[in-house]
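Hi W., the fe (ii) ion complex you wanted:
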Amino acid sequence: MIQLLVRDVRLRDDATGETSAVDVQVQDGRIHAIAPRGAESVEAETVVEGHGAWLTPPYVEPHVHLDSALTAGEPRWNLSGTLWEGIACWAERKPTLTRDDVVERAERTLRWYAANGTLHVRSHVDVTDPSLVALDALIEVRERVRDVINLQLVAFPQEGICSFPDGEELLTEAARRGVDVIGAIPHFEDTREDGVRSVEFAVDLADRLGLRVDAHCDEIDDEQSRFVEVLATRAARSGLRERVTASHTTAMGSYNPAYSYKLHRIIARSGITMVSNPMVSLHLQGRFDDYPKRRGLTQVKELLAAGVNVAFGHDDVMDPWYPLGTANPLQVALVGTHAAQMLARDEIEETFRMITTRAAAVLGLDEEYGVHVGRPASFLLLPATDGYDAVRRQVRPTHVVAHGRIVAETAPAVTTLTWPGEDPAPVTFAR
Ligand code: 17E
Ligand code: FE2
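Structure:
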C-alpha cells in the first residue's frame, strides 16, 4: 500500500512540448514511480483522479518581503507611490513590530502562497533594526512551515550597510543567527563608494559563511546607478557565481545601448541570476518622470537572450510598497508578460518558467525540484494544457501536493451561461 496515487495526469516535456498520460505513485513523501496511465494497479491510502490535468512542479517565489506583508496603511498609506516613501512608512512601522505580529502576518501570507501552489519562497527580512525582532520571528516561521513550504531567508539591510548606524555589525549578527542569503542595497547608500563597499562587504560575508547573495540592486530610474557590474564582477571573482542574485535592477531600463551591450557580457560571464518584480516596478518606478514616462523595468528579454537566468517575483503583498496581491505567482507572470512585452506565444510560455523552473534555479533547488522519480512529491494539478494556457486563463491548481500530502484543493470555478435560444452551458474560456 503506497501513500498516494495520482491517476490520469499529463506530464509535459518542456523541451518538445509533448505530453504523456501517466499515473504517479508517491511513497515516503517522494515520487516513487511514474507509469503509463492504467499500466499498473497499485493500492494507495489516498487516490486522486486527475481527469487529464497537467501535473507540474510547484510555483517558486524568488523574491518577497514577508516581514512587511499585510501592513499596507500602517501607520499611513504610501501616497506618492515611490520606493522612498515606502521606506519612510516602513521605518515608522518598524518600532511597533513584535514577534507575534511578524509571525502572524508572515504565516498568513505563506498560507496564501501554499493555497495558490507555491511551495518554495525566498523572503527578504529587514535587519536594519537593532532589535532584529523580525529576523528572529521569521527564523521561527521557517521552522513552523517547513512541512509545507521551504523558506529561504535573506538578511536585507533596508536602510544600508555603510550608511546605517552599525549596519555592518547588524548584517553580520543576522548571518550568525542563521539566514540562508546575504542582501545589500547599494543604490540606497549615501555615496557611490559606499555602494561599492557595501556590495564587497556582502559578498565577502556570504563567501566566508558559505551563504548565497541576493542584493536589491539599482532599484532606481537613475541611469548612473551602476552596481550590477560591481555585483557580477565580485560574484565571478569570488567564485560564488550562480549563488548570487541581482534583484530589481530597474536602472537597466534607462541604460544606453552601448553600456547595455557591455553589461550583458559581464552578467552572462559571471553566471549570476536576476529577479524582476514587474508588478512592483511598474508601480514604484517612473514616479519622478514627466512624459514620456519610463516603464522602470530591467531588460528582461535582452537578458534572457544573452543566456542569463531571469525569474519573476511578487516583491510585496499588501505593504508600504504595494497595496495589492494575493500571493499568487500566476498574477505576476500575467503582469510580467505585459510589462516586459513578452506576448509572443513562446514568450508567454517563458513567463511560466520564470515562476517555476527559472525561479527554482535562483533558489538553487537542484535535486529538490522537478517531477522525477526520487524527488520530493511536491507538485500541482493544473486544469490547463500548458503555461500559455495557465497564464492566459489564470487557473487555480485543483490540488497542491507537498511532500506527498494534499495541502490545498480548489473546486474549479464553473460559470454557466444561458445564451438566448440555447440551454444553459458551462463556459471554460478554453479555446
Ligand atoms: N524595499 C526596497 O528597497 N525595495 C522594495 N521593492 C521593497 C522593499 C518592497
Ligand atoms: Fe524587494
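The domain at 59-367 is CATH 3.20.20.140 (TIM Barrel).

W.
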